[in-house]
Amino acid sequence: MDLTKAKIFLYAVDSGSLSKAATAFNYTPSGISHMMAAFEAEVGFSLLIRTKNGVIPTSNAERLLPIIRAQCSWDEQFCQTVSEISGLACGTLGIGAYSSIASQWLPKVIAAFHRDYPGIRFKLLEGVWQEVDNYLLERKVEMGFYSYQPSSKHQWIPLKNDPMVVAVPLNHPLAAQSSVRIADIEKEQLIMPAYGSDIDVVNLLKEENVKIEYQFSTLQNYSAIGMVEEGLGVLITNALITRGRTNRIKLLPFDPPRSINLGIAVPSENRLTPAAIKFIDYCKEIIGAMDNELQQ
């Protein structure tokens, strides 16, 4: 298998676009089309379906994707190991993360890492817990930054505990309190991120054995915070996501306190590239030193 064609094929599948793949790999669109046609001729069947919105993999290609990703992952590990011997000069590091971690923690870590290893490129995919976990399972990334869940099949590297809080509008009756109990919000209009499947919020409500109805849901917590600011309801979330967005809301800790453990998940087979191993060391040092990151 031609690994260059395989990598371009994966990029086209993940981005849904041959033109984006052409730009990323410095080929002309016609050159990429010829390469994909040659790749399909090599395997003996069609791999991509062309649509008006881009490209999608065929059913046969879906069966090959895990194998192709594994092959490309081994090639990346080989290249980075060679690179490490000569000073970690090049390579690509794929990272999946909660939006809160991607915006609040990772920029500082990536900046420090880039200063020392400018040849390493980063691919950052954001998502809710289920999405980040799938990125790892599908080998789209080498590590995932999210909250610890016992159901995860990956090795876990803890970083920090992040308190769960309730965000309320400044003029809400609860804003006069210093903390809240679940009973205080059972009758409130709850705004749910992740379209109602935010695993940290769902787990908290399950553990408290309560079911709160919600009328508003959105994908990201940032949108949910905007809804709170407009007085549409209250939001249960982790404190990190609210950093820099507290001017028009009041954050209330739970009584008794509740928190989630944020950290790094890596594949259970522990086949990490040299860049990934080094980046994790940077995360432990830099994020570990952010003693006031969760203080608003």
Mean pLDDT equals 89
- Tally of helical runs: 11
Estimated radius of gyration? 22 Å
Proportion of strand residues: 15-25%
> What string gives the helices and strands in order?
HHHEEHEHHEHEEHEHEHEEEH
Major β-sheet annotation: 9 strands, mixed
Got a strand count? 11
Provide a descriptive summary of the structure in words:
The C terminus is likely disordered. The chain contains 11 helices and 11 strands. It has 296 residues and is an alpha/beta fold. The radius of gyration is 22 Å and the shape is globular. A hairpin with a 2-residue loop joins strand 1 and strand 2. Helix 1 packs across helix 2. The strands form 2 sheets. Strands 3, 4, 5, 6, 7, 8, 9, 10 and 11 form a 9-stranded mixed sheet that branches. The protein has a two-stranded antiparallel sheet with strand order 1-2.
Short description:
This protein is of the alpha/beta class and 296 residues long. The chain is 42% helix and 23% strand.
Summary tags:
296 residues; alpha/beta; nine-stranded mixed sheet; 11 strands; disordered C terminus
SSE layout:
Blueprint (H helix, E strand, L loop, with lengths): L2 H13 L2 H7 L4 H15 L4 E4 L2 E4 L1 H27 L5 E7 L1 H6 L1 H11 L3 E7 L2 H9 L5 E5 L7 E15 L12 H4 L4 E3 L6 H9 L6 E4 L3 H9 L4 E5 L10 E5 L5 E8 L7 H15 L8
Parallel strand pairs: 3-4, 3-5, 7-8, 7-9
Antiparallel strand pairs: 1-2, 5-11, 6-9, 6-10, 6-11
